[in-house]
Fold:
Amino acid sequence: MPSSQADKLRRKIGEDVPSGGTADDTLFSDEEIQEILDENPIWESAVRVAWETKATRLSNLTDVNEGGSRRPLSQLHDKALKQLELALIQERRALGEVGVVTKVHTIARRRRAADAPKATEYGGAPGSPPWHRPYPFR
Structure:
């Protein structure tokens, strides 16, 4: 039996309905999941919005220490934010906004004073400091 888009989105964000349970046992109701899908026709955008919502809901949780047990619930928010970052990158790739990042550095040589252009040749005023003069690229 093929899964619906809502079921796929639930799996993608780790909000599966537990066996024998209902959508009330998760952070998202069926209506909220469907609303996210309706408002975001691009799959990656729907996943990003779902992670944003989940991170927002988890932001209120704090660590609990009871007796000898400890539950670090604030880590859930941190992990949701990391998943949100990944979803944002995937969304940008799907929209064609992210490609390979290339850094280009320029190597410049100092010129001797005799080879330097005259101040008036490129619009600089005679006697003005050299950093105020436009410098031509060759």
